Amino acid sequence: MKRYMRYAGIALFAAMACLFTACGNDDEYDKDVTNVHYVVKTSVDFQMLYTITITYQDLKGASHTFQMKGMDIWEYRDKVKGDIPLYCKVIAEANELGDLDNRSYYINYATSVHWYRQAGGAHSIDEGEKGWRVEKEDLEQFMTEHPAIVILDFQK
């Protein structure tokens, strides 16, 4: 019986030793991690009246520029090891007015940026919804006064 207990104890000790060595330091990957999430939402009227251009740098360092067409929401989310610069700029430029069917137009947008860096912790900017309700007869003057609207200008 003593021999059985001895072997059982050795086996238990060996099993536990394997478990503890398999549990490496999970925080090693989290050193110098950059995690980002951009969100831009726009109204249908805004996209009809303005050309919305998004320029951002992904976490691999490549720059991207495109026009936000046919989608009311754009998101970019990524995580990478390293302290990577963050950049996102969204600008709306007025289009030529064509035939107008509506009595009023909702030129609305909302943005949020969430980012995390191991050294600096988590941060968030949530602008909420901003915008204007513009009557048809005031639209030409509004667009003359607002030929370009900076929706988001983020750099860290």
Question: What does this 3D model show about the protein?
Answer:
This protein is an alpha+beta fold and 156 residues long. The protein is 22% helix and 49% strand. It has three helices and eight strands. The protein has helices at 2-22, 44-49, 139-145, and strands at 33-42, 50-57, 63-67, 73-81, 87-94, 104-117, 121-135, 148-155. The strands form two sheets. The protein has a four-stranded antiparallel beta sheet with strand order 4-1-6-7. The protein is elongated and about 55 Å long.
Q: What percent of the residues sit in helical stretches (DSSP H or I)?
A: 10-25%
Mean pLDDT, to the nearest integer, reads 85
Q: Report the end-to-end length measured between terminal Cα atoms.
A: 68 Å
Radius of gyration: 26 Å
Number of strands: 8
**Number of helical runs?**
3
Q: SSE order in H/E notation?
A: HEHEEEEEEHE
Secondary structure category: alpha+beta
Order of strands, main sheet, comes to 4-1-6-7
Largest beta-sheet characterization: 4 strands, antiparallel
From the spread of the alpha carbons, the general shape counts as elongated
Q: Which spans of ≥5 residues are poorly predicted at pLDDT below 50?
A: 2-29
- Strand % is over 45%
Keywords, separated by commas or semicolons:
49% strand; four-stranded antiparallel sheet; 8 strands; disordered N terminus; single chain; 156 residues; alpha+beta
